[in-house]
Amino acid sequence: MSRKQPKDGGGGAGRSVAATFNSNTKGGAMIMKSVSIFLASGRRASAQSRDPAGNGPSSAHQPRADSHSKDQNSTGTARTAISRDNRRILARMDELNGKLNPKMLEMYKRRTHFSKVEVEALCKIYRKLVANASMNSKALAASNPGVIAKAGSSMDGIDRSVFRELLHSTFDIVTEETLMERIFCAWEKGYEGLPIRLEGWLMGLSTFLKGSQAEKTAFCFRVYDLNSDGFITKDEMFALLRNCLIKQPQDEDPDEGVKDLVEIALRKLDMDKDGKISFQDYQEAIAEEPLLLEAFGQCLPSDRATMSFLSTLQAQEDSN
């Protein structure tokens, strides 16, 4: 009985984000291609966002609607015609699509472990991923008459298919479907199973890439608590461990080996010996032995993948 090996041999971890976002599947390649474009043009995009004339998407200056508006250019004239309510709606749409004004950038800088430039870079990646996922959806609908493209899909956020590509190709996480789904559901606490919005994208990556031991412990526990009842039970441990292992020809009953692993896990993690693992049990056990953090399957990026992703964001910061 042995652990499943990553299909890609783990080679994606050492590459830059620009390379690792490319997928072997046609749909995945289309989704990830735009991230390479973003990385290649990061300096130009950043310079435009700081345009002192206020023409960039993050500019906080809006032309006033008054009697002299006739002398303004066509863009300014169009903006003066937008009502206050419409501007509020557009601001919300911009936020969902990854466009942030300086005040929002500062807020996310305080709430995450990222610098302001890193937040800007992550917002642009988010925007590209969502926009290209929408294009793929429409292309699929065009090529398959029976499929209807979801209206307004560009506003839905990062869905499961895009998220899986990110985990596999960028963060070096190759695991079975059950655990992959749990990582997606645990990513944004309070919005289980819904597409990941901009705030959830930033907050989740903050824990995923730069989180403290306490933050990563809480995240992993949410992943392993399959029914979200506050405990990791024997049945949940069995399901997680069974899916992580493959049967060898000499194994007559592989489930017996999984049951042995469950008992070993309980001895290590069930601190109060009540037959299940509470969050407090898990916290105490991880504090004593950090290597037990991912005892029931990989749900955090490898060190190499983390360093590769962060070095790319750092390069964006250094170029500005």
Radius of gyration: 23 Å
Structural class: mainly alpha
Average of per-residue pLDDT values = 74
Strand ordering within the main sheet? 1-3
The succession of helices and strands, N to C, reads EHHHHHHHHHHHEHEHEHH
Shape type: globular
Q: What's the helix count? A: 15
Terminal-residue CA separation: 51 Å
Count the beta strands: 4
Name the helicity range.
Answer: 55-70%
- What is the strand content? under 5%
Low-confidence stretches: 1-28, 36-65, 147-155
Q: Largest sheet at a glance?
A: 2 strands, antiparallel
In terms of quaternary structure, the protein is single chain
List the helices and strands and how they pair.
Elements (H helix, E strand, L loop, with lengths): L1 E2 L13 H4 L5 H15 L1 H8 L24 H7 L3 H13 L5 H10 L4 H28 L16 H10 L7 H11 L10 H13 L2 H12 L6 E2 L1 H11 E2 L7 H16 L7 E2 H10 L14 H16 L2
Helix pairs in contact: 2-7, 7-15, 9-11, 11-14, 12-13
